Amino acid sequence: MFKFRNLYSLSVSSQKKTKRWYMEHINDFYVKESKRLQLRSRAAFKLMQINEKYAIYKPNQYVLDLGAAPGSWSQVVSEKGKVMAIDLLEVSPIQNVKFIQGDIMDKQIMNQIRQHKFDVVLSDMAPNVSGEHEADHQGITALNQTALLLSTFTLKTNGNLVMKTFVGSEEKLNYDFFRLFFKEFYREKPLSSKQESSELFYVGKGFSSDLIREILENTEKLYKYPEQIQNRLKNLVIDYKMFE
Ligand SMILES: C[S@@+](CC[C@H](N)C(=O)[O-])C[C@H]1O[C@@H](n2cnc3c(N)ncnc32)[C@H](O)[C@@H]1O
């Protein structure tokens, strides 16, 4: 919980910004609703609104929740099925949720996750936001690519993905690359995602990792794609082979 006494260590302009953020936060409709419904964060509404539109998860499915802390997405999904949740930060226990604390870029953590098959992969992961749009965009692009790599091992054929990203110089390339692995692929900005925020969500339905296998069997397949996509595919195949 934010404490006003922290303001004394900030500059006057930072104090004003922090105080404005705090006042907006406590007056926010979704913050009030999350408190009323005992959800751990307003982020829960983003997933609920995406699910309402795209029917991402169904009852009794097994869901991987990447970047789960404080746990509101896991709370929402665990009402219907089982969840494996990962975060750098601790998540206090939730029924039907197995939590692993660690970095998804860590090979040991990846290997732990790789033992499982999921119907749905969710990623609300974000780097510590610096305020530098392009740096934050690059940071989340790296997390997005790791979430896709993990999906190639763990997401069932025809499974679904929801992944947070930020707009930035490579967003179109990211979109064109990630969509290759899904029958349907969308950009979505749910109502509860603040308009001033650069976040948006990729929604993928009908996953297939066939493309990676095809490239492994015949690298010629790469050459039908534009150069930047070829490079992304080459890197993904290199990472994929490291785990074989
Ligand atoms: C926006 S929060 C997630 C909120 C969560 N979906 C919820 O509903 O409560 C983003 C989370 O991503 C986590 N994260 C960022 N990088 C990560 C990484 N490399 N491995 C695991 N978690 C990461 C952060 O620790 C942070 O808790």
Automatic annotation (TrEMBL):
Record's GO cellular component terms: nucleolus; preribosome, large subunit precursor
Highest taxon of the lineage: Eukaryota
GO molecular function: rRNA (guanine) methyltransferase activity; rRNA (uridine-2'-O-)-methyltransferase activity
Entry-linked InterPro entries: RNA_methyltr_RlmE, RNA_MeTrfase_FtsJ_dom, rRNA-MeTfrase_E, SAM-dependent_MTases_sf
Pfam families cross-referenced by the UniProt entry: FtsJ
Keyword S-adenosyl-L-methionine part of the UniProt annotation: yes
Single GO BP term: rRNA methylation
Active-site annotation: 164 (proton acceptor)
Domain (Ribosomal RNA methyltransferase FtsJ) ranges: 40-207
Keywords, alphabetical: Methyltransferase, rRNA processing, S-adenosyl-L-methionine, Transferase
Alphabetical list of SUPFAM superfamilies matching this protein: S-adenosyl-L-methionine-dependent methyltransferases
Protein name listed in UniProt: Ribosomal RNA methyltransferase FtsJ domain-containing protein
Species of provenance: Paramecium tetraurelia
